[in-house]
Specification:
It contains six helices and no strands. It is mainly alpha-helical. The protein has two domains: 84 residues; 90 residues.
Length: 197
């Protein structure tokens, strides 16, 4: 009986310490969960690898809490907050990068597509084509140009709706096709670059 009386205060103290540890850990987990959910739209979209890493770390912190490892859960949850902020910053930088990339294409591709269309029409009207070109090649390019133009329109629509990843991916595909067509049908446009100022 005496031994129980001696042990009981120790057990109560341990229980109290555990209870004290649980509350801060739970609060930290809630704070990290709230921050993670707020960051999700940007982070998941623009830096998906970082989103997965943060989600995995959050789940691991929650698992420690469920096992009663409150100290470990607290440390993990507190460590998540600066990582979430860093991911938000990275997502913002990626968004700016994608926007700038598409704006660059938007500044040149429409005019180039228009110039290609006019050049192909001119070739189609010629009785004798320049060396390296034939009627079939010109006809095939004329048939393909509306598809390329449509693809650019879809990329622009994606950009305007906020789907930057799709817009840039589609835009880059269009850019590649346009550059190949320019090389074939407008060689002087690439050979005669303006002199450096």
């Amino acid at each position: 009986m005496r031994s129980i009386k001696r042990i009981l205060p120790i057990l109560l103290l341990a229980a109290f310490a555990a209870a004290c540890g649980k509350a801060p850990a739970e609060a930290a987990l809630k704070a990290s969960d709230t921050a993670l959910e707020a960051a999700r739209p940007q982070v998941e979209k623009f830096v998906p690898a970082e989103w997965k890493s943060l989600s995995d770390e959050s789940a691991a912190a929650r698992a420690e809490f469920e096992k009663g490892n409150y100290k470990e859960a607290l440390t993990a949850a507190q460590g998540l907050l600066p990582k979430i902020q860093a991911a938000v910053t990275a997502a913002g930088a990626r968004k700016q990068e994608l926007t700038a990339s598409f704006e660059g294409m938007k500044a040149s591709l429409p005019a180039t597509l228009d110039a290609l269309g006019k050049q192909l029409e001119a070739y189609a009207a010629m009785k004798k084509l320049p060396a390296g070109l034939d009627k079939a090649t010109v006809t095939a390019a004329q048939a393909d140009l509306p598809n390329v133009t449509q693809a650019w329109g879809e990329a622009t629509t994606a950009f305007e709706s906020g789907d930057l990843m799709k817009a840039v991916d589609s835009g880059m595909a269009v850019k590649g096709k346009v550059e190949a067509m320019v090389k074939t049908f407008m060689p002087t446009a690439t050979a005669q670059a303006p002199p450096a100022s």
